[in-house]
Each structure stands twice: as structure tokens, then as C-alpha cells.
Amino acid sequence: MSAAAITVVARWQPAPDALGEVLELCAQMRRQSLEEPGCLGYEAYQSLDEPRSVLLVERYRDEAALEAHKQSAHYRALVVERVLPLLAERKVDILRAHAPL
């Protein structure tokens, strides 16, 4: 595993009538994720152009920190068990910064 910082960009499209619940769960997830030692940032955005679209931008110290996040009890309880069933669509990109050319 590389020691380079990792950014996760997740695009969520909640099912109709699920947006409010998904945003509340995002707020809970943010609070708990920022307590993880390897989490450098966690922000949720609601699209102005597509109000039912949610964008998450998460930053982790390295791949090990991201893996620890995905194994955490709060990730499993909030995202896996509660958010994922509320989503009509989901796309996740895991990114590492490219060194300048």
C-alpha cells in the first residue's frame, strides 16, 4: 500500500423522498469519520443543478486509513445498512494525487 493521501469522491442519487434522510445520515457520518485518526476531511455537498444529487468528498492519510474507515462500525451501520438501501444510483471514485509533471 502506498503512503500517499487518498481522496474519495462519491456521487449518490437518493431514491425519491429519501434525500432528507440521506443528508442527515451524511451529517452523522461526517461527525464520526472526522474522529478517525486517518481521516483528513469529510464533506457532503448537495447539487444546485440537481437538488437530489449528493456529492461526498473524503480525504484519508493513506490507503490503510481508507480501509480502516470502511471497516469501522459507524460506516457499516450508517452507510452499508442505512444509506445504500436508500440510493437509486451510486458511483465512487478513489483517487491518489498525481505528482506534478
TrEMBL record:
Q: Which keywords has UniProt assigned to this entry?
A: Monooxygenase, Oxidoreductase
Locate the ABM domain: which residues?
6-95
A GO cellular component annotation here is:
cytosol
Q: Which domain of life is it from?
A: Bacteria
Gene Ontology MF annotations: monooxygenase activity
Q: Which SUPFAM superfamilies match?
A: Dimeric alpha+beta barrel (SSF54909)
Keyword ATP-binding tagged: no
A Pfam family reported for this protein in Swiss-Prot or TrEMBL: ABM
InterPro entries the UniProt entry points to = ABM_dom (IPR007138), AI-2_Isomerase_LsrG (IPR050744), Dimeric_a/b-barrel (IPR011008)
Please state what the protein is called: Antibiotic biosynthesis monooxygenase
Q: From which organism does this entry originate?
A: Herbaspirillum robiniae
